[in-house]
Amino acid sequence: MDSVVLENIGKLVGTIGFPGLIAIILLRTILGSFNQRLETLDRRLNQLNNSIVLVTKTLTQLSKEDSTKLNTIFTPVVEHSNNQTNN
Phi/psi at 59 (nearest 5 deg)? Predict the structure, then answer.
């Protein structure tokens, strides 16, 4: 290490004490790790949201297709039933 860095570390130890310096270093390390984890979580939540939107769109499209198919199948049956009731 550079002598200036060692000198500054020595001044910090003299000013706040060794336990205080260690506490600051640990806190900085923990907060840095915590911020990285939050960023990772944020990215994953965005990916999950995009997946949910895609699944919702797919289900909506499938639902529309199914209702169209059901209408084409059951419309003749309903019309036939109505014709028999009227006769």
Answer: -65, -40
pLDDT tens digits along 7-18? 888 887 788 888
CA–CA distance, 71 with 65 (Å, rounded to integer): 10
**Within 13 A of 62's CA, how many CA atoms are on the CB side?**
6
DSSP string, 17-32: -HHHHHHHHHHHHHHH
Backbone phi and psi for residue 17, each to the nearest 5 degrees, phi listed first: 90, 160
Residue 12 neighbours by CB under 8 Å, 6+ apart: 21
pTM of the predicted structure, to 2 decimals: 0.52
Question: Which structural domain range is residue 72 located in?
Answer: 3-86
